[in-house]
Amino acid sequence: MQKKPYQNKKNDKRINDAITARELMVISDSWEPLGKMTRDQALNLAGEQELDLVEVWVQDGIVMAKIVDYGKFLFKQQKQQSQNKSNQKKTELKTMKLTYKIGDHDLEVRKSQAEKWAKEGNPMKIMLQLRGRENQYEDLAIEKIEEFIASVDDFYRKDEKSKVAKQGTTFNIILYPKK
Question: At the topology level of CATH, where does 16-85 sit?
Fold first, then answer.
């Protein structure tokens, strides 16, 4: 019994009659080698078992095909992809806001928060915005940012190129966790 070829645009895997190779290395669902055979022999073998013939990979002109239930094959593949995606480490850029006249205790609180972010592996953006008359204290603002950077030096580093950048009335710098 020949099965109809699946419409397979997403995976680019050839299934059943869509396989164009004349000779195939065929393996079973349990990865047991069944040997080299023609495409028609492999399709007949898959049809007898009421399974599909799926082209798994091609290397050096050798086509490897697997006899498998294609629906289950796709489900396992999607499940594996979603599991790999969930296991990826996610980092996000955290923002630490300072003021040029911030107190010592507030700096300590922000330092402990930065330490927590560093342990999670998140980069940190330090922002300090000056408003109105505060704009005349740019040197104090840069000094406060440098002081904070020095206090978090144990767990954050800045790139060789990075320095405190001024955009309008806001000063920014991005720090990266030490590994």
Answer: Ubiquitin-like (UB roll) (3.10.20)
